[in-house]
């Protein structure tokens, strides 16, 4: 393996751990990133001359600590950094390239997902710091320009420093709410990747599953983390069947089950059972249970899905959850109750594409063809992907005039 290959392999596997270790010692995101970048540049020179070290990650950590000390010395206000330099010098002297790097990634995740940052910044900073995505890759995922995303990341890191956001795991009284913020970030990363096309250079769904596995490893026996990982695996197991050969979206009930990934399906169900056995339900466990019921054999368990959405309302009493419950109620056999509930959501969800798609389907079943076509037209206009638009167009055009 050449030095560039060894460096790339190390950063792909351990960048998150290295950044977390550096932030823990410096208390500054930007200085940590700059130090690691300089250490990586030095590695290419030194490894080409002396050979690849036995522990490339340990070598990079020590080199980055030295680079950080040098940066403080070059600073015109170096006197103000005397304590920081002394602390880093102690850390560098105590570190050994053969020793395992302390895993501070859980603290780093909670810092990236602090509620003082907006959700998009939380996601971007998590992808950059923990997953190691480039600014360009993150910008592409969120349809931003690279300079715009670079500015967002810079502002987020500056805000963490200026607001003295702690690099710490939340106290027990703050844990439930802060954990939900972290899981919301992970789930947004997943859904962004799941709905993107195959042309994307980085699979964000895979990055989200990596994050969920990491959380589960760093904080075992936490039912909501287990539930989140179960939800991602159950959803991901259907990826190959979610569109047909023409690129049209296929609902779970109509998918070719032979295309499902049985390994991921089994892992997801095992995690869900493990989480539910702890008898401490939360929204992500319930969502995972809903996903599992959608995959029941031979058809989705709609009565149970409707009941689960009712339970989810206790945690997330949102119009979207009400919409999904109404759809499940209709599928379970109570069409007119579902229509009545959907009608109550018209003003709130008028710009929400799934609302009009669901309304169109239920109106069709109720024999209201003209109103159904109007709802389909609205849903097609609002569709965010060509696959969804093709599915809705096909449904609309198959209805009797």
Main beta sheet strand tally, sense and closure? none
Structural class: mainly alpha
Taking all Cα atoms into account, the compactness measure Rg is: 25 Å
> What is the domain tally?
3
Q: Identify the overall geometry.
A: elongated
Into which percent range does the helicity of residues fall? 55-70%
Model regions low in confidence, pLDDT < 50 over at least 5 residues: none
What's the helix-strand series?
HHHHHHHHHHHHHHHHHHH
Q: What is the count of helical runs?
A: 19
- The end-to-end distance, rounded to whole angstroms, is 66 Å
β-sheet strand percentage: under 5%
Overview of this structure, please?
It contains 19 helices and no strands. Helix content is 68%, strand content 0%. The protein has three domains: 3-103; 106-313, no CATH class; 314-401, Serine Threonine Protein Phosphatase 5, Tetratricopeptide repeat, CATH 1.25.40. The chain is mainly alpha-helical and 401 residues long. The model has no long low-confidence stretch (mean pLDDT 89). It is elongated and about 75 Å long.
